[in-house]
Amino acid sequence: MESKNFFNDVYDVVRQIPVGRVTSYGTIARFLGSALSARMVGWAMNACHGMPDVPAHRVVNRNGVLSGKHFFGSPTAMQELLEKEGVTVKNDNIVDFKNVFWDPATALL
DNA sequence: TAGTTGACTCTAG
DNA sequence: GCTAGAGCCAACT
User: Fold this and answer.
1) CA(A103)–C1'(B13) in Å?
2) How confident is residue A4, by pLDDT bands cut at 50, 70 and 90?
3) Which residue of A24, A32, A85, A98 has the lowest C-beta tally within 10 Å?
4) A2, pLDDT greater than 80
5) How high is the pLDDT of residue A37?
6) Strand C contact with A38 (CB < 7 A)
7) Distance between CA atoms of residues A100 and A88, nearest Å
8) Residue A90: domain span
9) Average per-residue pLDDT in chain A?
10) What is the CATH number of the domain that holds A34?
């Protein structure tokens, strides 16, 4: 299980997402150098179930939609978490997504 | 071993 | 403006 280099990178980026901010799979994928590997970010999130330090709820698709909300055990768990952190979610969509959007390339660089 | 799937994104029609 | 198809990589069956 030491072959999670790509996953580890994803976790590292997601872990650095500040509270009240969200990012997208493609953004992380591109930041890692694989813009077309956005799916892999999703897979990384799928494996992040054993990583309580990885706020997967702060990672959404490029539309700001909670695509993976269903994978949190409850279809509203992701929304509840985001709203609890100050992110307004409406109908599985992040309100002012552009305002709460967090770009690793801008924050880390 | 090989085939299919998947929490995405982009380009083309 | 919306719908459809293609692409990437790893895990699961």
Assistant:
1) 32
2) low
3) A98
4) no
5) 85
6) yes
7) 9
8) 5-107
9) 90
10) 1.10.10.10
In the structure encoding, which two tokens stand for residue A72, read together? 């949190």
3-state secondary structure A59-102: EECCCCECCCHHHHCCCCHHHHHHHHCCCCEECCEECCHHHHEC
DSSP letters for A9-40: HHHHHHHTPPTT-BEEHHHHHHHHT-GGGHHH
Count how many domains chain A has: 1
Could you check: is the Cβ of residue A26 within 7 Å of any atom of nucleic acid strand C?
no
Distance from residue A84's CA to nucleotide B12's C1', rounded to whole Å: 41
A34-74, pLDDT tens digit by residue? Answer: 878 899 999 999 989 888 899 999 999 999 999 999 999 88
Separation between the CA of A36 and the C1’ of B13 (whole angstroms): 22
State, as a whole number of angstroms, the distance between the CA of A72 and the C1' of B3. Answer: 28
Residues in a beta bridge with A90? A93
